[in-house]
Fold this protein.
Amino acid sequence: MTTHLSEIELQEYALHKPDLSTEKALHFASCAHCQAVAVNYQILVNELHQLPKPSFNFDISAAVIVKLQKSKKSYSVPVILACFFSLLLIVVACLAIYTFWGKLCIIITSTTPLVTLFILSTVVLILGFHGATLYNDYQKKLKILGLA
């Protein structure tokens, strides 16, 4: 065998989990390079086990509760008005569709299929681009907050 053991195999050997094939075991027994790398990994693992366990030197629950108490949010008047008018617009649009549904069906069925397809594809494209823009803005805001 001319190639050395992979890093994963050497790390597993260092962690006392040798699962080597006969060919690889023979190579390991005769290769000074692989043995030296495995010894280095064993030293590294032993040093990592001797490190003190990480711990907080403060009460983490108290710090989290303080943050939660600060995050109570009140909505400003412009936000409430924007939500109200958005909801009102949706209700008016639904009422208009409900009221004129029969006429809309007549218009759709009386036009040629190509025109209907053109109109529907245009609407889908506009909504798709608008959705993509909203998603990009959302991702930018997450990056600003450090959540993405």
In short: Residues 74 and 131 are 27 Å apart (CA to CA). The chain has a mean pLDDT of 83. The longest helix spans residues 113-145.
